[in-house]
Amino acid sequence: MSSNEVLISGKHVSKIFGYGKNKTTAVSDVSFDFHKGEIISIVGESGSGKTTLAKILMGLLKETSGDVAYKGQPRQLRSHKDRKNYWKDIQAIFQDPFSSFNLFHKVEKLLLDCIKLQGLELTKEEQERKMKEACSFVNLKFEELYNKYPFELSGGQMQRLMIARIFMLHPRVLIADEPTSMVDACSRSTILDMLLKLRDENGMTIIFITHDVGLAYYVSDTLYIMEKGKIVESGGAEEIILRPQHRYTKQLIADVPKIHEAWNLEA
């Protein structure tokens, strides 16, 4: 599904926090090209810089140095209008779904906000149809949820609601920061399948931020391995996992549980 069109690119991007002796380099001289319809995973342990890079991609943090381009043009985020237009195309889902919604707004209001964000002028019937369609996509029943508050839903339902929101907004790029780390194995598989379906149907670029190299291999076309703020290895997912070159990549792969070895089974 990925194409040759580069949607987001970065050249020598760095992010430094603090000054003088107290400065910390969170992202150090990284470069990347993310293509339309591509699934990318940025993989690293805590402190690797992957979440800081994700915030730079989302426009929530300003890079200290380097350049970020969107659709072949230097990214402009100076004005409120610039940021609003950028965020129409770039959306995110996060590790903790409960921190992503206003807990005092009911589900219907949360979904209606997506329609308003797009500037659509729809009748009440058309609005309800779009909300039902989005809920159906993630196997939720709008009729059962529309009058509930987020804290009345399970973690799995909240993650699905986040994906329903993405379904309604149709962004070009989705940044998914550890989207399955707080749900059980069954819900995890379902959520990943929904995200892959979104990519297949809409040509969306998906950027996973994860510590889980196994998940990254399962879903990704391309991997970027980060350690201490640097991209230490990048390339096709299969090539990197089957033939890793960097010490840190090999360490991440070695840390993946191998059930057949633990149980002394034949591979």
UniProtKB/TrEMBL annotation:
Gene Ontology terms, MF aspect: ATP binding; ATP hydrolysis activity
Keywords: ATP-binding, Nucleotide-binding
CDD domains the UniProt entry points to: ABC_NikE_OppD_transporters
Ranges in coiled-coil conformation: none
Pfam families xref list: ABC_tran (PF00005)
Domain ABC transporter span(s) in chain numbering: 8-253
Family annotation (PROSITE patterns): ABC_TRANSPORTER_1 (PS00211), ABC_TRANSPORTER_2 (PS50893)
Protein name: ABC transporter ATP-binding protein
Organism of derivation: Paenibacillus thalictri
